[in-house]
Amino acid sequence: MWSRLVFGDGLRAELGAPRNPRRLGSSPRSRVWRVELPGATAVVKQLVEGPEADDRYAREVTALRLAARASAPVAPALLAVDPASRVLVLEHLDHRPPREDWAVDHAAALARLHATAGPADAGALPRWRGPDRADIDSFLALAEALGARIARGVPEELDALVDRLGRAPGHALLHGDPCPGNDLHTPAGTRFVDFEQASLGNGLTELAYLRIGFPTCWCVTATPAALLERAENAYLAQWRTATGSRITGAELRDGLADACAGWLLRGDALVERARREGADHLARMARRDWKWGTATARQRFVHRLGVVGRTAADRPALAGVSALAGAMRRHAAARWPALRPLPTKRP
Question: Phi and psi dihedrals of 45, rounded to 5?
């Protein structure tokens, strides 16, 4: 593995010569090593050549620099960079098994991360991108394939939803994939890694992960109701402490309802990142199921239907969508009776 470690002369001059490199697990889009530097252990990450590699590298570097503003660390310190080789050298963090109520610390750290960016950072990262008209069409086609009746006004509700998500206010630093595995539970608290998909937007789109089941991650779980309430309250408290602003109950209710419904529409949130963009994964799921990480595509989707059916039930702007989600869930349960609920514990 030593011969593959990329650590150029500039990094050596700045940090010293690395010793004892050990390859760590990572996605196919990167190579990661743990190394010994003079006086410290560090992590070396190189983004490999591939689609949008330069963009992913730039996002990660920018996001780490923004995250460093937090009063209490929410990400590893960025020690040095080598843009020519797309290499980052990061603080090494000691990860320990998360507690049973890990979601509370996760949500609190997520709020602190989100709070590190603001209006003055507009343009530093791309804006978060939500579902679009093609997602609506795929979702409605799946509803018909399942035999659920689409009531009058539902397409218009979905159009308005996509418009609201596209215009949602906020300049929070969004991680892009804030999932189990991208959160390290250290003795000093939870910190996030892997910011290749970072963007700016409304923080509730990522707080919704706890309700909707971590839609961009292999490690999908269903957060128990009591733990979910504690986690969301921890997010609200940390957001207010970090920003001085309060998210009202109505803002929380409406924002989470919209965010969860938006994740339900996105077929790309049923497959790993390398397979996203292009294929209609909702149509594929109607024909066959597949396993990704801790659950199958149909398990994920049926869970999301239940969440949206409940979360949007008291929101007039999504009344038809809520009813349709409930009907689709009933039809899906009848068609696929062997489906099991999502796991409630992370592996």
Answer: -125, 130
